[in-house]
Amino acid sequence: MSNRRHLMEVGTYEVRRANRYERSLSMLLVDADHFKDINDEWGHGAGDLVLKRLGHTILSNLRQTDLGARIGGEEFVVLLPETPVDNAEILAQRLRQAIEALSVPVTSTDRANVTVSIGVAGLQPGETLDQLMSRADRCLYDAKEQGRNQVVLAQESQEI
User: Fold this and answer.
1) Digit-coded pLDDT (tens) for 7-37
2) Which of 130, 158, 117, 159 is nearest to 29 (CA)?
3) 43-100: per-residue pLDDT in tens?
C-alpha cells in the first residue's frame, strides 16, 4: 500500500498522461465508517489490524497498473488508469461488498466488522489531480451523509 507522497507523484503523472492522450482515469476515495468505534472499543492495536485488512482487501482487488494508497487515518485512495468511471463504480461496489464481509479477529473472542463509504470520480478533460480528488471527496462526503456503506458516483457535469 502506497502513501500520500507516492500517490501524488504517480497521480500527477497519470493525470498528465490521461489528459495528453485523452485516456480514461478514475479515482476511488474509500473511508472506513465509524472507525473510531473500533479504536474506542478494542484499542488502537485492533484498529491497526482492521486497517491492515482493509488495505489488503483493497490491494487484492486491483490490477498491477492500479495504485492503492493510504492517505491518512482510515482513508484510502485508489487510482485507476485506463479505467472509465462506470468500470470504477463496479470495482467500488465490489470493494464495498468485500470489506463488508470482513470479520477481523481483534481479541480471542471478539471480531470487528467494518463498512466503507466510497466516492468515485472520472477525470474530466484538463482536470488536475487535486480537482479529481476534490470531486471524489465530495462524493465520499455524500455517501457518508446518505447513510454510509455505499458508493456515490460523481456526475460528469459536477463542477469543482
Assistant:
1) 999 999 999 999 999 999 999 999 999 999 9
2) 117
3) 999 999 999 999 999 999 999 999 999 999 999 999 999 999 999 999 999 999 999 9
Catalytic residue among 14, 74, 89, 127: 74
What pLDDT is recorded for position 156? 66
Three-state DSSP at 24 gives coil
74 is catalytic: yes
How is the beta sheet containing 116-122 ordered, strand by strand?
67-72, 75-81, 25-32, 116-122, 151-153
What is the Cα 101 distance to its own chain's centre? 17
> Nearest-CA neighbor of 123 among 6, 11, 3?
11
- Give the type of residue at 53: R
